[in-house]
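I'll show one example:
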Amino acid sequence: MTHSSTSESRRARRSPANGGRRRQQGGKRRWGRIVLLSLVVVLLAAGGTGYWLYRDLDGNIKGVDIDKAIGDDRPAKLPTSGQNILILGSDSRAGANASLGTGNVAGARSDTALVMHIPQGRTRAVAVSIPRDTLVTRPACTKTDGTEVASAKRVMFNSIYSLAGPACVVKTVESLSGVRMDHYVEIDFAGFKGLVDAIGGVTVTVDQDIHDSSSGLNLTAGTHRLDGTQSLQFVRTRHGIGDGSDLGRIGLQQQFMLALLSEIKKQDLLGSPTKTYKIANELTAALTTDSDLASLTKLAEFGRSMNGVDPADMETIMLPVAYDKVDPNRVVAAEPQASQLWKAIRTDDDIPESAKKSPAKGG
């Protein structure tokens, strides 16, 4: 893994040209950490409770049969013991999410997306974030109700979830990358809110006023303790920072996820079974996974298989993108960087530095 030096990090934060890319990378890294942490917390909660609590948590987890939905038209599995996981943060406007100030958009979107690659040996990991405004070719898909969705070019990546469901998102990522997804994990916004409320809020500091009528966030410069609803507004804010694009808002996501992890680390979860269970209950209720992971037992087994992976050492890369020539508000995969990146993951090789540079900055 590669890390920028402290001085380089400071220069990057001062430089508008680098802001969007670095923010995108950091924000997605925090999402990956939250997912891994979720599996650990679930395991702890299940191990210290009776069968009825286990059954209650186990019943929270929703499963999707990705293999059945996609069929055999998929890339080959890695020829090694490596694993690839597609992780989505979804922002459905239905059900519990309807009251979260998520806007007037109907249906749901995959607000955050990353491909987590764990190479052979499972002692390290790399997460590749896919900006939600990326224009992609959507392959032909079968929806959960059995209806067919025709292939289409130049569609926004985050619209696929709403139109055709999670299996089609997996199929699109596999088509885009040529990389087989071994597992799928989704966390929805309502569950994210519940997690923050379960730990008692998260403290953040902002160096300028933020007023975003779209997300509903109104913060003055300074330090604030955010509850679950405010936290969702914070990570969804895009119009009050940067260039208003998906790339520009990721700095807030990076800052918030780091603060969230710090807050969880401060709390004695092992010494508080009640709080541990409450957090585990919020997490499992928010989880949707592929059918191979859709139980506490399977999640625990998978978590143990990745004991050697330290989330703090995870390398994070944004899919290299360039501003679209027709619509500058959208981005497209930048070549040859994107192809170099996916090839390295397919072959379980080190990712070349040239494949980590994105022409679109989002500052």
In short: The first helix runs from residue 6 to 14.
